[in-house]
Sequence to fold (235 residues):
Amino acid sequence: MRIITWNCNGAFRDKFNILSDFNADLYVIQECENPAETQHKGYKQWTANYLWIGDTKNKGLGIFAKNNIELKRLNWSNQYKAHKVKYFLPCSINNDFDLLAVWNHRNHSTIFEYIGQFWIYLQINKLKLNNSLIIGDFNSNKIWDKWDRWWNHSNVVAELKEIGIESLYHYYWDEEQGSESNPTFYMHRKLEKPYHIDYAFGSKEFLTRLKTMQIGAENHWLKFSDHLPIICEFE
Fold:
């Protein structure tokens, strides 16, 4: 099974075709349009089997699958007291494993922004994640940890490890958090501003079945987005 995550930086209706050569089984796409409200016939056809969430029709989080794959949305809570976190899209894949698509957002929060959104979601749904692949744009890295916050990037990584979930990139490339040699994002598409902020986390089953893991080449993908796609292939 081949799975790709990519923050397309909007206008996915004009970009989906560049992913076709990968022939992936699943695509997790951030900042994409709602297929139900598009007038683009090619995009509507390409997204025939999908799940999508978002606040506006032009920019949300989508999971797109081949027609022979069953996607079933899971009713996991994203509400913590008065705070509703976003964007998280959990689903079952062929009743075989659960996939949690992620697009960590600022969400108008001055305290629990970005990785703080995921930390809250993790507290609510931790017991459901033990056989899951968690994948997407986390907008986070260990280099931005703040010592006075108990929910920083390192805390999240540690909490995931406690339930048997680890970063596929760091397992595959044998690198430490915060010391990634392969960026996934270039701020303002400038080569002098590289960061690693997109991830795939998986339980032991995904670690042992991981066959290859690639990150798209910046000289090609920066023409389309400030993010590079991550391509995971499992035996």
